[in-house]
């Protein structure tokens, strides 16, 4: 993608008008409070009615980051409805596996299982990772996923 | 993940036995020819009956790499059946967008459309990219996706 | 960072209460319209009163992404006041140089010059890149920065 | 690299023919069993006759990934003979150091020492990392390499 | 950036001459000893008069890497004067946060605090990270920064 | 790697002494002029007696970066003698292929050929890239390598 830092004002003046009008659509009246509430609903749905510990741990020192995660990442992006939770979590597991972030992959693999994704489907995502990003991130992700499966089986054995 | 380069031969001797037995399962009799054929079927299904130009372009100088792509990436990994083509392509679009590889994302976004994914669903994946990997790769991916949509609309207008 | 996907409901119930209260602070009444307006002011201030072409180019196909860039990235994050524009752009130039994104680095280097950063200061950031991320991204960034300096000198010669 | 998702069927029809013929070469008759056996020989040669613990640990939960590592990564790619083991391991150590994967670098540095690479040569690779990818991955790699040297000296002191 | 590996000797012959002359400037008489001394002064200024433990730990096994860090990274790049310590550390914190290197970010965040940067300013850099590189590296950086703040507050409570 | 930002002055005071003594070794008397000369010899040896165009192009706007590349990267790191040119270039080709920097990989692949590495050996490095970092960077590297081979064959046909 080539980007230039200037455009002739004539062209963008017009574009800008449409943009300004766009900014007036009712959809844009959502308040920050509504976005935070939407994010809270998403996290509770993904996390079996529990707040997300890492998110809560951020609130004292990093309230802006906690609010941005809840209001933007979860409230705006994650609350959209064109993709279902299963698909969104499968994509996210594949992305964090390929980026070499097994801790984040593990969190979202847990959300995926909560949303009805099977262990077999999660393993398939990791197999794809060998093609997307090579064997090291796939092996690291498989170890994190095996931990998650083990923890959840243990919780089932331990019972309520 | 902590990895150690040595294990006591006692333990791994036993593991190794099971591994050796595993290697004798009928599933493992697949020949390289069968794997290449499976890969050919995958690429033709994804690419509307066409060979993949980038793959074919590699054959003369890099026959091993072309065969590895066709036999391993496509024939072994991509031909598996637990995930459907739609889901596998949506994951791959999300991964290549997040990794900052818009050229590869564009190829797989085309496969996704061929597999029945909608333009709206592909846009949702790009919105997720802002959370996964930040705004620059999302903006670069959106530009590549807009090109793809434009090219395909143009082809429809031009007709057969 | 180790993250666990569950916490005892007792502890997080309390945390959650404080979070819920937090969500009621007046600061959170900002509407999407106000955020978009804040983002518009930021981009015009950084870009000498011009809209940002890459941003405007996204609006037709990717209105959500354009709004997220304007409302979240610019309106919420970039409009904060603890760091001044000079410092924020110098950091961003250093980040995009190290991440190997010279196109984005060039855009923000232009904003930095508009905010009063000197060419010499921008060069220093690129020198730091050799330590942060090695010589290839530093050399790529230096080429993009040289282009920017050349384009702006040309515009000055061409006059209004 | 510019990639297009379509080519005129005329041209690729011909290319495809040659590809199909290529797929019939004797070299391609290798069965999955033969590939797994080739991979087993590679890992035993690199790892002083021992199976690779991380590989074996994957077999139960991720048999496909273990087989892909053994059959593709080791059996196909690593078993080739144009590069010798010393060179292949030195390259791999340099790559994993630059990619910021000190755990994987450490494993392959151990294989390199087993293949006759000297400690001094491994240190040189890390010095190159400062140029390739900056000082942080080089410093992280140096710490992992120092651990490896220490562990192996300790094993020598402890004796058989 | 497009790079070619050859140029006509005519053109570069001239360029080379100027390069050769450049190499004779007095500024280039600095000895390795002077560079190491300059690096020592930088690290002591940043680290409150203390040597840098990670740097010292490298000296025995990796003297070249320790000298390159002290003589090049610190002595040449970090000792320059166009950017002040505050700005240089803020940039470095933003870069290591975006690159997903929270350990290095934490070290430089400590230097930043030693140089008079406020905790609030460091938090702002992390908020920028959500735009530069997504939420996972920002959240990881926030955890490392919270640890640093906690350690320093503890040291103040413990007193001298 | 865990790093702490403080160490008791007692321990590091001693370490520091040895470091200071180390700084007095004759090896450290090398002047900047000698380092630049060493770098010039390396580039001329690698590039068949030609200056490196990208390096020369940096001199006017970025003399410090050009000197750092020539004096540190080439003069200090690349001029070391424990690894030979063939091995150092093969490692560098593998690293830049895995990092997704085909332009830099192409430059060093040219140096490798100049140092006596065969086309077949370079192809092997690219095959390793599929394991190290996945198929997209390997395919991108193969395209850059095919360009290089074509350019050099063309030059041979064109003759002196």
From TrEMBL, chains A, B, C, D, E, F:
Signal peptide positions on this chain: 1-29
The keyword Signal belongs to this UniProt entry's keyword annotation: yes
A GO term, aspect molecular function: peroxiredoxin activity
Domain Carboxymuconolactone decarboxylase-like, residue spans: 65-147
Taxonomy, superkingdom: Bacteria
One Pfam family cited in the UniProt record for this chain: CMD
Keywords linked to the UniProt accession: Signal
Membrane-spanning residues: none
InterPro entries on file: 4CMD/NDH-1_regulator, AhpD-like, CMD-like
PANTHER family, per the entry: 4-CARBOXYMUCONOLACTONE DECARBOXYLASE FAMILY PROTEIN, CARBOXYMUCONOLACTONE DECARBOXYLASE-LIKE DOMAIN-CONTAINING PROTEIN
UniProt name for this protein: Carboxymuconolactone decarboxylase family protein
Organism encoding this protein: Salinicola corii
């Amino acid at each position: 993608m080539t980007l230039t830092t200037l455009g002739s004002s004539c062209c963008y003046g017009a574009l800008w008008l449409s943009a300004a009008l766009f900014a007036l659509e009712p959809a844009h009246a959502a308040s920050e409070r509504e976005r935070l509430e939407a994010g809270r609903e998403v996290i509770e749905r993904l996390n079996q009615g529990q707040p997300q510990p890492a998110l809560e741990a951020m609130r004292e020192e990093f309230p802006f980051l906690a609010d941005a995660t809840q209001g933007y990442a979860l409230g705006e992006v994650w609350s959209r409805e064109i993709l279902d939770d299963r698909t969104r979590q499968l994509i996210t597991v594949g992305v964090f596996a390929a980026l070499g972030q097994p801790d984040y992959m593990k969190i979202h693999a847990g959300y995926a299982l909560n949303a009805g994704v099977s262990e077999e489907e999660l393993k398939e995502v990791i197999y794809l990772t060998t093609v997307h990003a090579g064997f090291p991130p796939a092996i690291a992700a498989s170890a994190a996923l095996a931990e998650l499966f083990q923890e959840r089986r243990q919780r089932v054995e331990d019972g309520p």
